[in-house]
């Protein structure tokens, strides 16, 4: 499945680039011209640009236009020039990348364990030199990236209380405080709005929350996933991501929860799932994607009812249905997980808030439509996020509600107070997923949370004392997680850079991050190191050991996206990777070459890169392209759900 459907080709140019102002975060920025390192060359050494953990396997990839068999390579200390390790390039290529770079070779330097900065030099024909990288402890390498990720979410905040020290953000979409409610609109197959919007109620306060990606619409679909991942990280790693830390995702997660609570009316049992329209009909009704501007500009529009841009300033809120309506199980499950995690995190520090969360989570879970499930409700239009699996969401939601109830000290008036009720529900939906139509079809990302759900449920069964009568066992959960990883390992064997996910399947970067996490989940539960090398390889790919030699996280490494398709980044930030930039923003990276057809410049954009062009063109291969250009939403639009996985991954390492 792919998120690419959410940006139809005819409106692709209307998407957004985000680059943020650095305040209070200590980061070293590479003063590197956008095209310089890629101007020409016949061989390149690709490395994890953040660095390698002292005791783990250390691999780089040599990408060359011809045979390098028998060439020598050396790992060189960056300061002294002293050779820490030398070896011979193997006789066998890992495979062809494209018609230009026909040879790839694995360079193994795992024996280098001394802390320091290094580069790899290949003395062959042609010769090549890698970027500088570190060998160091987990904490030294990855902890700063957590603060960067927090910076990204603060840049994504909407409403009256944004942080002006982050990218000079200003209060935005103040009209969301008194928004009107509309029935779910109809779109045609090209995602063109049909007819008029039908007002059914309001006003309602839906201010706050995060912008979904590079645009300014807000979706429960993605916010509920993002918040669940964020809150899980805050609970699991409190010394790194908890209250008072340099990367306080406990507070940021609560910012997300505050908005999700606004999208749920507990009295009438009504769920609202979207604020704003991305696409209208292009004439009489315009949407968010028709304008390139800073978010506060929407409040300054002089519009009245009937004007084409009316719904850009006075943004519609869409509801699931009348009060008490069944809720699409994907949304119900993830929201239950959010509110269950809320109780786990805040029951001691703010019991009233936690009690409200728990009541919301239980009520929403009970309204999940789990029979006669047709097309899931995601966004309007559905093609933005064409999700098809939901049993995994119900498993995760029930598991987090189990943990909440097992914590004790429960408020009164809850529909369910026995934690084993939710443990049974979680096991039921885990079994339904494992025996269902999509088992093994995906790995951890927005569209499939079974990897996280299985990890949480496995541990919950142990916490509950291994009660009998559950529909799934720990062995089955671990086996299913292992099946996902086994498929990815098989895929990696056919890729020169050992990526465990098909390049043309869409959402490549979040899948690489998700696979790295699942590898860690499995090995932790099984007390093995079965997937340790595989997990490290997926992380290395995401952080520079790929055909393009770029990380896909802003501010990470020496080569990263400079020209994100984000209005805030494009209009408030730099165009060359120097401050101010939107630190921590994670983009998708390579994308199917067909997704780049029809991309165009939109009025209001600052041209980026300033000289135009495609510095990475020679590395297009395997049916995918990476384009660091403001017009290129398939490669460099940042997204909340992409970035969320970096929080857990980097915290688990640090």
Helicity, in percent?
25-40%
Give the integer mean of the pLDDT values.
93
- Based on the structure given, which CATH architecture of the domain at 174-413 is correct? Alpha/alpha barrel
Main beta sheet: 6 strands, mixed
What CATH calls the topology of the domain at 174-413 is: Glycosyltransferase
Q: Looking at the structure, what is the overall shape?
A: globular
- The parts where pLDDT drops under 50 for at least 5 residues are 1-39
Rg measurement, Å: 24 Å
CATH class of the domain at 174-413: Mainly Alpha
Quaternary assembly: single chain
What is the first-to-last residue Cα distance? 31 Å
* Beta-strand content: 5-15%
Q: Helix/strand-derived class?
A: alpha+beta
Total count of helical runs of at least 4 residues: 16
> Could you give the count of β-strands?
19
Task: Walk me through the structure.
The radius of gyration is 24 Å and the shape is globular. It has helices at 138-155, 220-236, 238-241, 249-262, 310-313, 329-346, 351-366, 391-406, 419-434, 450-463, 474-492, 508-526, 532-542, 567-572, 633-636, 640-653; strands at residues 43-46, 52-53, 59-64, 72-77, 83-88, 103-108, 116-123, 128-129, 133-136, 179-182, 186-187, 193-194, 199-204, 218-219, 264-265, 270-275, 317-319, 591-592, 624-625. Residues 1-39 have low confidence and may be disordered. A hairpin with a 5-residue loop joins β11 (186-187) and β12. The chain is built from 16 helices and 19 strands. Strands 2, 4, 5, 7, 8 and 9 form a six-stranded mixed β-sheet that branches. The protein has 654 residues and is α+β, with helices and mostly antiparallel strands. It has a domain at 174-413: Alpha/alpha barrel (Glycosyltransferase).
